[in-house]
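cron nightly-structures :: item 1 of 1
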Amino acid sequence: MSNISYLSNARNFSITNSSLNTFISTSNTDAIQEDLKQVFLLDHLKPSHIADHKFHLVGEQREVLRRAICTPGTRVTILGSIIKWANDTSSESEDIYWLFGPAGSGKSTIAYTIARRFDLAVEVDDTIILGGNFFCSRQFEDTRYETHIARTVVYHLALRCKAFANALRRSGKFNTVHHDVRAQLEDLLFGPWLESESTGEDSFTPRRYLIVIDALDEIYQQEVADAVVSRLHAVLYTDTDNHVLSYHQSFSDFMFDHNRSKEYWCDHAVLHRHLTESCFHVMNAGLRFNIANIRSSFILDSDNHALPTPDTVDSLIVTLWTLSDFLELRALFWMEAMNLLGCRGLCDPMLQMARKWVTNYDAEIAEQLAEAASFALYFSGSPASLSTPHLYISSLATWPRNRGLQLMSLAVGSRVNAVAFSGDEPRIVSGSEDGLVTVWDASIGKVQDVLEGHTNAVTSVAVSSDGWRIVSGSYDNSVRVWNTATGEVENILEGHTDPVTSVAFSSDGTRVVSGSWDESVRIWDASTGEVQNVLEGHTARVTSVALSNDGMRIVSGSGDKSVRVWDASTGELQNILDGHTYGITSVAFSCDGRWIVSGSYDNSGRVWDASTGEVQNVLEGHTDWVTSITFSRDGRQVVSGSWDRSVRVWDVSTGEQQDVLEGHTNSVTSVAFSSDGSRIVSASGDESVRVWDASISKAHNVLEGHTNPITSVDFSRDGTQIVSGSEDNSVIVWDASTGEVKNVLEGHTKLVTSVAFSKDGRQIVSGSWDKSVMVWDGSTGELQNVLEGHTSTVVTVAFSRDGRWIVSGSADNSVRVWDALTGKVQNVLEGHAGWVTSISFSHDGRWIASGAEDDYLVRIWDASTGEVQNVLKGHTGSVTSVAFSTNGGKVASGSLDRSVMVWVASTGELQTVLKGHTGGVTSVAFSRDGRRIVSGSDDKSVRVWDALTGELQNVLEGHMDWVTSVAFSRDGYRIVSGSEDESVRVWDASTKDMQDLLEVPSGSGQSLATEPRYIQEREVNPTGGYKCTGWLLSPDGNDYLIFVPPDARLLTPRNILTIPRSACSYVYLQHAPLGAQWRNCYLP
């Protein structure tokens, strides 16, 4: 036994790194071999020839030892890894490659293949040849003893290296073959090798030799056998963690069988209760607030050199516990200690397990455990966990108790198209636009593995029920099956001729089903990759597929508006479910196979009886395409995701909406329930994966305001009111001071695109996708007139300064001038080649400026005659907004080319180009004095510019989505902005202490935005943009004050008012117990 362990130390003698080893060409090998054989090698080294991979096995030998190379095309990854290692001549490369695995997994076949591969080393890139090999086997005398290994390898090496052979001959220590392994290595290998290096006798390449030894466990070792038998005499032992374990199961079986063990019987229930009570006692006695005596909350744990080591915090205290008293207070102390130990990821699964145990006994405690588990996940997946005091300061303070809880947000860095939970394991799998499949630890939100191989966007992912395999579909037309343990591709399923849109595993993991744009559904053998069946019948792209839990049926959805049910064995069509009015986007079976749910481009979900095909419920509430829909495991709920950016939870039996989970800032692309139904995961085009609490139904506040993105805003002339239009078809008038709703104007049947006040504030005009222009009473909100005439969407509207005229621009490419009193058309201005996106009256009413989508031009019209006075050329993208200065001398235009241009209205001369936005400019406006211009952009920012010099004066940030509309108040002190995030914000435009960008030292890839009370830490994107990390720092950037989730929409000092108020969050730090005072968070 000691000899074998010494053999492993041979790595310290770097044979493979020799500087003087020679490749003997095949023309010389025979001569040297014959010479060495005749003189001493065969007679004195006594090698084992049957242990050589080249030995020709015959008769009984061949029956006992089956040596063969790997079948071509198999084990490609592991063979490639070994070959790459062997040819790596760098000093960083390890000297030994250990291949291990269960019996029958092919280790010997791999070793035999590698020995054959490097025996001649004929590949151009080879830097190494086989120096020696030994294939152990207990079947033969010559292959079962350790003393045969060294002398056989020495024999082989001498045949390869003449310098070594000569040194070996000169040593004359051949009697060592009768000694132990240690002596053989010293006298026959190490000594002669060092001598051969010093002679400089050989000078050819390669300079490295590979030694292959297979099946060391086949070596006969009496000492090992004796040790195993002696251990079996004992029944219990203690491992390194002081756990008491039994050597063999029979002892445990005996102790827990009352009839057999009699007086030695161990009662599971009694002992578990005793252990639990003891642990509770230890927890109650040992857990306390600030258990590690952390002095300040201003630093991260990683920077706190005074922090005790995990050994200081007794792990027994924090990894076992119990219930009611614990939940009242010590649960937080326990999470604190677990975070210090680096075990925070265990908190959620342990609390979830406890919830399952008590659900049938105490519903109240079960609910408390569910909430504790949700909070544990909220903390462990948050950057707040980087500083333990922020369990209390940040996570507890920002814990959103009264809404659908977002517990975690995972930043992917690319549009996420698909997401799935991994069975009972705390893992999430996502597929993204960059072609990557990412595996996440769902307990702490960290990446576990990234699976690379697809050459185009990943569209769908699924996990086998045992969690061992992942299947992914892609725009590269392929389906890939991955091993979750190794991250390697097990199979590439090729056959689809167009992008694969959906994949699913059968419940037993033996089959994969895929759907594709090629209008087919394919069934594959998950192990071999062979196609078992192709289901054809859809007349448009197949968008989604799913298997019933019993594996008997397949359901598919298609752009042809149909849901089809197939026999999974025969491929025969069983039923066609018709009812959706647009294409199908997603389908799923309930676990019991009774129901099918489908989502569609018609904005609805439908629950079908899987047997009869009848509709049981229509799920209505989404305001845009339903992109993904699925059942909870118990079949009682359905979760859906939509392009309207929301995730919604439905009651299957009633069809009623139970919850709306909001937070994504782009379309939701995929949703899934966890296996226990306590979590929902969603993926989005906003490049995030989010985890939500689904275990406790949350009561939602009824919020006043728009329920969809805001498209347009305007100030009344006196600055007391704000009007906004929205995609929810409504117009709302707000009190500009308090943010309260004064009037809701309803009448449009489609989304409102543009709104404006008349100069005297007595009228409001609005345009809509319903092709109409509506005029409203500004005081009462009553509809006064409907102006009809446009043949397509009305995109933009405006009043003349004297209120006599209304001008509108439309997707019918025309501009219309209306009499505001009679509603009659006065003029139709035609000339644009695309949608008219923006219009503006000059202050004196003589001119109209208009911008369009397709021709990138700004046109100046005579308002009386309708004639074009000037055409302004310069933009390289669609013109989205135009505005006259008060004196009419200048025109500002914004464009999707990210620029704002300032023109001389009379001559059309380009005066200034304002650049700075990182996205398309959506709206522009002049201040009343003409000295400033404000612009909004799809980069989510509002910018204020000096209209004379073009210099950027201010950047106003806080919106969570595109800014769609901006305007100045008449006095120029305030700016109002509307956004796709469904909020209206009022900004202070008078002060100049706006956010400066400061580079964070040490190249951390972050920047900081300064504000009066704190600094918002921001990450810089590769494109130059940035986003908030959520950390608020002290003004000098040294202290971590509090972590506020970026989705909380923190109100910045410049943001005077946000409408509705529920659309933002406030932070008051004046009396907060921070830094050394953080210990005052808890006063017993």
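cron nightly-structures :: done
The radius of gyration is 37 Å.
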